[in-house]
Amino acid sequence: MFPADWLDTGAMRLVCWSIPAICEFGDYLIADKKPSLNDEDRSVVYFGHYPSGTSLRSMVHYSQESKTGNFQYYDFGPEKNEQVYGQKTPPIIDIANINTSLPVALFVGTEDEIADPKDCEWANSVAKFAYYKEFNIGHLGFFVAKDMSYFTVEAMNLLAKHPPV
What we know:
single chain, 49% helix, 8 helices, mainly alpha
């Protein structure tokens, strides 16, 4: 869904470069409570590659979880669920079972409309992540914020402390 091609990405690049307020408003509607926290030049580059494609099934799964309020496997419908999972409803995913022998960091945007800070707090209380910190940015801010210190300071320090194997 939304495959990247020159028409889509070129149009987005042109619109966002010519009238940045349009893309900022779209960002506000979908992802960020305060798009003003984002760097306008970085945002133009980001939206110049948007939409870049995703699977329809991923979008449907996200919608299913939003509607049910459950963190669950994909819902194929009662008959196929029975075949795939051995039950009519999709199994719930218990995040308390996340293997924490490998440190997991949770970076949270306080202005995020998609990964709500309240949900992230709940996830942290259940899964006990090794690192949890909230930053004054939105969902897209992790790519295009004016203040990228979450990455240059916290993420780099965590990588130095826990180098990839």
